[in-house]
Amino acid sequence: MNSIQSYLKEHKDRFLNELIELLKIPSISADSAYEKDVIKTAEVIKVSLEDAGCETVEICKTEGYPIIYGEKIIDDSLPTVLVYGHYDVQPPDPLELWNSAPFEPVIEKTDIHPEGAIFARGACDDKGQLYMHVKAVEFMTATNQLPCNVKFMIEGEEEVGSKSLSTFVKNNSDKLKNDVILISDTGMIAKDAPSITTGLRGLSYVEVEVTGPNRDLHSGLYGGAVANPINILSKMIASLHDENNRITIPGFYEKVEEPSKEDRAEMAKAPFNLEDYKDALDIDEVYGETGYTTNERNSIRPTLDVNGIWGGYIGEGAKTVIASKAYAKISMRLVPNQDWEEITKLFTTHFKNIAPKAVKVKVTPHHGGQGYVTPIDNIGYQAASRAYQTTFGKIPIPQRSGGSIPIVALFEQELKSKTILMGFGLDSDAIHSPNEHFGIWNYLKGIETIPYFYKYFTELFK
Ligand code: BES
Ligand code: MN
Ligand code: MN
Q1: Does the structure show a pLDDT above 90 at 462?
Q2: 203-256+302-369: same fold as 3-200+371-461?
Q3: 157 in contact with ligand 1, CB cutoff 6 A
Q4: What is the C-alpha to C-alpha distance for residues 43 and 41, in angstroms, rounded to an integer?
Q5: Most buried among 65, 127, 216, 452, using CB within 10 Å?
Q6: Is the CB of 403 under 6 A from ligand 1?
Q7: Which residues pair with 328 in a beta bridge?
Q8: Inter-axis angle of helices 3-23 and 35-51, to 10 degrees?
Q9: Which DSSP helix (H) or strand (E) runs through 58?
Q10: pLDDT higher than 90, residue 28
Q11: How far is the centre of ligand 2, averaged over its atoms, from the C-alpha of 323 (Å)?
Q12: Minimal-distance CA residue to ligand 1 atom 16
């Protein structure tokens, strides 16, 4: 047993208990009713960084939720790793679909996690994954094995668009100066198939409002004679995809890079079983853009999805009514080179164009961000790859993810450094869903792997 393994063995229970305490605080950034809890979580993170051996730790106030900054600088001539994570979580609803309370963590065994998994909102996204970094640094400082400088920047608004963090990064580029950014806020293919995320999709999120008559109307007296905004909105939304499931917004694909044959062949090598995929979701068939595989559809292709749609009467029984308004929330996942603000404009123009004169349309952009791809020929990627090889005994597979962490593109733009995405979660961990969980094995494996990244990165940096 090596040094990190014996440290883990000795402190495993404490590492689990500390994470469980962190998960008990409902740090839901989207809901202002939880403001106190979000702020309390920032304080807990601050103390945990101090306990882990960081020397300067501060809670940086912002217009929104605080950012925790911590650092341990051992020598200016050594490289600096900047760790990013987020302590805010998604709202837990629908609550009735949870098998246990979202903020009362429990450990249960599952087929994939026979060692047990911690069930709680934020267990994987991102409290569990960010805490692996805190514990990895604790190990390195406690055993005098931290080979380079480390900085932490942990925010509380990731799930709502990282607005304060953008300003913070722009205003503090000196303080945040680093040689590589390290993030665990993504996943890996499987426990026996480690992977490194090499790309994230961008995002444009909009809300639309379609207004017909100025008030709700009797659907018998007026039905058939005026535009029903719900009917119209449905029609408009349906027209946003063609028969091949391609998005019909003019110019939408203009900047999308077509993958080369070689790239596609490389992607197809990643382990993936379509039957297992369908079984896990209980669907008879997958659905998506003609001409692309499931893995391509959910990573290197842009998409448009309605996330919510409402209007009219949804109470018990029947009410014969034509609503005055109908609404939808729509997200577009974008691929590198598609600019999110440009896509938002294309959407807005198109959506207004396709509306019949009988309705008024309002489009409100929410938030967005650019996609990201990282090359694999840099020392950051190589250090990560070697770290996985050491602890998993396998070469990790580079894989582009379909999710978004919009701030990553801004990091590169402002701080001029590459981000390495070492995620230890699994797709089955149900992030953003009821019964979110994080495998204890994954948590400990992350803590074991991270110190090797520091070691190899420092060695390669010389
Ligand atoms: N950690 C996720 C993103 C993620 C998960 C990327 C798994 C790759 C694999 C992050 O917290 C998240 O949920 N991002 C949002 C975007 C944000 C602007 C709300 C997303 O992807 O929907
Ligand atoms: Mn996250
Ligand atoms: Mn998330």
Answers
A1: no
A2: no
A3: no
A4: 5
A5: 127
A6: yes
A7: 208, 309
A8: 160
A9: strand 56-60
A10: yes
A11: 37
A12: 404
User: Is any atom of ligand 1 closer than 6 Å to the C-beta of 88?
Assistant: no
Q: Which amino acid is at 1?
A: M
Query: 363 forms bridges with which residues in the sheet?
Result: 208
All structural domains of the chain with their residue ranges: 3-200+371-461, 203-256+302-369
Question: What is the DSSP code string of 405-434?
Answer: -THHHHHHHHH---EEE---B-GGG-TTST
User: β-pairing, 80-86 with 180-183?
Assistant: parallel
| Whole-number Å distance between alpha carbons of 159 and 33 | 16
**Is 3-200+371-461 a domain of CATH 3.40.630.10?**
yes
Contacts of 44 (CB under 8 A, 6+ apart): 21, 22, 25
Report how far residue 54's alpha carbon sits from residue 65's, in angstroms, rounded to the nearest whole number. 21
Predicted confidence (pLDDT) per residue in 42-93, tens digit: 999 999 999 999 999 999 999 999 999 999 999 999 999 999 999 999 999 9
Would the CB of 203 count as within 6 Å of ligand 1? yes
The Cα 187–Cα 403 span in angstroms is 10
Any idea which ligand is nearest the CA of 160?
1
Looking only at the bridges linking them, the beta strands covering 419-421 and 56-60 are: unpaired
Q: Pairing state of beta strands 180-183 and 397-400?
A: unpaired
Q: Which CATH architecture has domain 203-256+302-369?
A: 2-Layer Sandwich (3.30)
Tally Cβ neighbours within 10 Å of residue 161. 20
Residues 6+ apart with CB under 8 A from 416: none
Helix (H/G/I), strand (E/B), else coil: 102: coil
Contact 184, 85 (CB under 8 A): yes
In the numeric block, the tokens 């702020």 are attached to: 39
pLDDT at position 67: 98
Count CA within 13 A, CB hemisphere, residue 202: 23
Contacts of 435 (CB under 8 A, 6+ apart): 97, 98, 99, 119
How many Å apart are CA 104 and CA 63, to the nearest integer?
A: 30
CA distance 386 to 393: 9
Instruction: Determine whether 201 is exposed, middle or buried from the number of CB atoms within 10 Å of its CB (0-12, 13-18, 19+).
Output: buried
CA of 86 to the centre of ligand 2 (A): 7
The Cα 33–Cα 74 span in angstroms is: 41
Å from CA of 229 to ligand 2 middle:
35
| Beta-carbon neighbours within 5 Å of ion ligand 2 | 125-126, 185
Averaged pLDDT, 289-299: 97
Contact (CB, 8 A) for 445 and 393:
no
Distance of CA 56 to the CA centre of its chain: 28
* Span from the CA of 432 to the centroid of ligand 3 (angstroms): 6
